Amino acid sequence: MKIFSALYDRVMTWSEHRHAVRYLSGMSFIESIFWPIPVDVMLAPMALSRPNKALRFAMLATIFSVLGAALGYALGQFFYEPLVEPLIKSVGYQHKMDVAFEWFEKWGVLVIFVASFTPVPYKVFTLTAGILNMAFIPFLLISLVGRGMRFYLVAGLMMWGGEKMEAQLRKYVEILGWLVVVLAVVAYLMLR
């Protein structure tokens, strides 16, 4: 069953849309607050389709992601009980918040760097940083470094790989897509 090839082609088409930069910026902003889809899903094809603008795309993703993180921090700090906590409970994220509290207790500000660079749900940690009243300027600086490293790495790899990487992705997209699905199911079962 081939579903990932069609999705791949659609994402590549979207990445060349005249408003793609706006979509990338908006997605980067909301992903740091609540959006479940990682920015890389849009950044990678945009960098592949326009390698001469890849670093600009990484810069925009970084800036808007950190701006979204600042809003997530503010929501956690000022609106946790009346707004955020009921929403977290209704979508079943309470366990993730509990893990975030534990990680903050264990690793302190380093957890912001880890969450901003890795696939760990960054949005949970932006809210938690606000809830725990983490110092705001270090929060922003660490977020800027972590998000910047991640997005520039993605853009750089796409620039470096270029057309050859795009051809290989297209060739193996079905295998890679199903592999990701299997890994996600295994990770879910292991963490449950």
From TrEMBL:
<protein>
    <submittedName>
        <fullName>Lipoprotein B</fullName>
    </submittedName>
</protein>
<feature type="transmembrane region" description="Helical">
    <location>
        <begin position="20"/>
        <end position="37"/>
    </location>
</feature>
<keyword id="KW-0812">Transmembrane</keyword>
<keyword id="KW-0472">Membrane</keyword>
<feature type="transmembrane region" description="Helical">
    <location>
        <begin position="172"/>
        <end position="191"/>
    </location>
</feature>
<feature type="transmembrane region" description="Helical">
    <location>
        <begin position="134"/>
        <end position="160"/>
    </location>
</feature>
<dbReference type="InterPro" id="IPR051311">
    <property type="entry name" value="DedA_domain"/>
</dbReference>
<dbReference type="InterPro" id="IPR032816">
    <property type="entry name" value="VTT_dom"/>
</dbReference>
<keyword id="KW-0449">Lipoprotein</keyword>
<feature type="domain" description="VTT">
    <location>
        <begin position="57"/>
        <end position="156"/>
    </location>
</feature>
<feature type="transmembrane region" description="Helical">
    <location>
        <begin position="101"/>
        <end position="122"/>
    </location>
</feature>
<keyword id="KW-1133">Transmembrane helix</keyword>
<dbReference type="GO" id="GO:0005886">
    <property type="term" value="C:plasma membrane"/>
</dbReference>
<dbReference type="Pfam" id="PF09335">
    <property type="entry name" value="VTT_dom"/>
</dbReference>
<feature type="transmembrane region" description="Helical">
    <location>
        <begin position="57"/>
        <end position="80"/>
    </location>
</feature>
